Amino acid sequence: MKPNHASTQPIGIFDSGIGGLTVAHAIVRYLPKENIIYFGDTAHLPYGDKSTAAIQAYSVKIAHMLLQQECKLILIACNSASAAAYELVKEYIGSKALVTNVIDPTVRLLKEKYASRHIGLIGTRQTVNSHIYKKKIDELNLNIRLSSHATNLLASAIEEFGDHQVLDSLLRVYLSHPNLRNIDALVLACTHYPVIKNKILEQYVSSNHNTIDIIDSSDIVAQAVKKQLETHNLLNANGVCSKHFYVSDYTESFAANARLFFGEEITLEHYPLWD
Ligand code: DGL
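# D-glutamic acid complex -> structure
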């Protein structure tokens, strides 16, 4: 960290779109005194089907923008970008800000509570194909059996329909996949999914006839960010906070859906990062 970093500087949060607002909301709940700058790259949504190289290029440019806004910590609130670009963003930012992702705090929770268990995971194609969770779990020798399934259409369906029963048939198909049988817990490895976590549990139970824990990482990530700021003496005690929510492509439908993901009314502003 630069020695002149101040606790009043903002936390920068980014995602492929507005799904990361689920994490942003948890950050606001756990850290109500912090200044927040959120950037949703709606111009490139979804990241889940993009190449690793494309996600890396987008992520570095967004991180650069957040650094220009003097963020003290940059949170990659997207599993797909955390999988594809965390190491690169960290290297790019160096000591100019703290950088964190949504995967490591979840893996730490698995270590604490689920060692030697059978865990299922659903996420985008990018996240699942990266095998990032398995690599991190194996590095820690947790003896967890991880069974993943890519649920490609789910993020877009949630944006389109929200927590609507039309998602039930899609969930039934995804959650009855043989990879997800006989698991003890299911990791929601996409920041869009917490919006429908009750529906995911319901559909899992009705398709598999057993109940499981649902692991929604938003709260875990917010707690990890709080701890990281505490460790670096960067918690904002000031209490005068501002919040800005930017998107790279503004449409009425993103604006209308922002409430669904954030859980309360917010105003999205257009930030023409790619123009
Ligand atoms: N929110 C993103 C994630 O956590 C998924 C949405 C997308 O494909 O862009 O992976």
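# post-check
The pocket of D-glutamic acid is lined by residues 15-17, 19-20, 45-48, 78-80, 123-124, 127, 155, 190-192 (CB under 6 Å).
The CA atoms of residues 60 and 89 lie 6 Å apart.
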